[in-house]
Amino acid sequence: MNSQYKKGVLELCVLSLLRRRDRYGYEISEYLSGHIDIADGTVYPILRKLKGEGLLTTYLQEESGGPPRKYYSLTSLGREEYRRERAEYLNFAAEVQKLLEDEENDEE
Amino acid sequence: MTKNEYLSALRAELKRRGVADMDDILAEYAQHFDYKLADGYSEEEIAARLGGAAQIAAQFETAAREKTPGGRGAMRVLVGCALGFADILVFALFCVLWGWVAVLACGALSGALLAVALLVPGLSELPWVYLPYMPYWCGALMGLSTAALGVLFACGSVYFAALARQGFRAWARFHSNAMAGAAGRPGLPPVPAWPQFSPGRRRLLRLVTLVSLGAALLFAALGFAACMSAAGDAEFWHTWGWFRDV
């Protein structure tokens, strides 16, 4: 799959994961690389980019028996962006699906 | 590749690309190694799954570039200025093109008026119609020729008006796409610069153009021949005194 295209969708996935609760980088990386075929290391640049755009903030939290973890949290701008991008993506995906299924019908 | 080898390779790549907050980034990757090691993976496995250090560093570089508003703002101003200058030239070009459309439309109108004056019997005798003398049938043939010429001009006017309109739309689309590109927004597909007639329309326009051109030439030749034979002289305008002082 086109990597540029995948990157845009990954950003949306990251926002979606963080909408439910705050997570630390490794957690997000593990979840996404477990479900989508990407290198483990690609999630961190995305997190940094989203933070740079003001969609995420970070804070450190002490963990029992380990170094403090850097948690990522959605800002209100991030929430707004997520809602917008989500609607856009779902609409897009539905159209693509419709198109591809139409093609199957044509061939029958 | 061990953890230390991977991290120093990543450090070198980040440094080469001038990525800010290098230590922060490296700490995050070091932590990734620690978590994965705790889950029972080997350092080699973890490094392999992270992706190439150069690739990762390149992603941090683009992430940093995309969020720099200064660079983008400067780009926007630059593209805006360039387009502004181009607009002056393009505006002049469209003025010329629309002027040409007006000229063709006037030509079509003149052809039609001449045809009416020459074809309607008795009209050329009216005091406010200034036409050189010629017998009615010669005039009628000339009138048919100017009528055909009028239609030809009208076709030209329609075509060039469509060209000016479509060209303007193509330019406007290019304009907005260039601005969108400078602002990092996606652009719309470009618009073709040539007139987009439906196949039926295009065929009709071509047919009318060719027929009117042929008719204009044919009737002009017939008109001249009729005038010559009526005046009994190849230079019939002298016989009828067209250029004599009134």
List keywords for this structure.
heterodimer, A: alpha+beta, Arc Repressor Mutant, subunit A, 3-stranded antiparallel β-sheet, 18% strand, B: 246 residues, mainly alpha
Q: Could you explain how this protein is built, in words?
A:
Chain A has a single domain, classed as Orthogonal Bundle (Arc Repressor Mutant, subunit A). Helices cover 66% and strands 18% of the residues of chain A. A 3-stranded antiparallel β-sheet of chain A has the order 1-3-2. Chain B is mostly helical. Chain B starts with a helix and ends in a 7-residue tail after the last helix. Chain B is rod-shaped, with a radius of gyration of 37 Å. Chain B has 2 domains: 65 residues, no CATH class; 170 residues, no CATH class. The mean pLDDT of chain B is 88. Classes of the chains: A alpha+beta (108), B mainly alpha (246). At the A-B interface, α2, α3 and β3 of A face α2, α3 and α4 of B.
In short:
The complex is a heterodimer of chains A (108) and B (246). Chain A is α+β, with helices and mostly antiparallel strands and 108 residues long. Chain A is 66% helix and 18% strand.
Task: Give the topology, please.
The complex is a heterodimer of chains A (108) and B (246).
Chain A: H1 3-20, E1 23-24, H2 25-35, H3 43-52, E2 56-63, E3 66-74, H4 76-107
Antiparallel strand pairs in A: 1-3, 2-3
Helix pairs in contact in A: 1-3, 1-4
Chain B: H1 3-16, H2 22-38, H3 43-50, H4 53-67, H5 69-119, H6 136-182, H7 199-231, H8 236-239
Helix pairs in contact in B: 1-2, 1-4, 5-6, 6-7
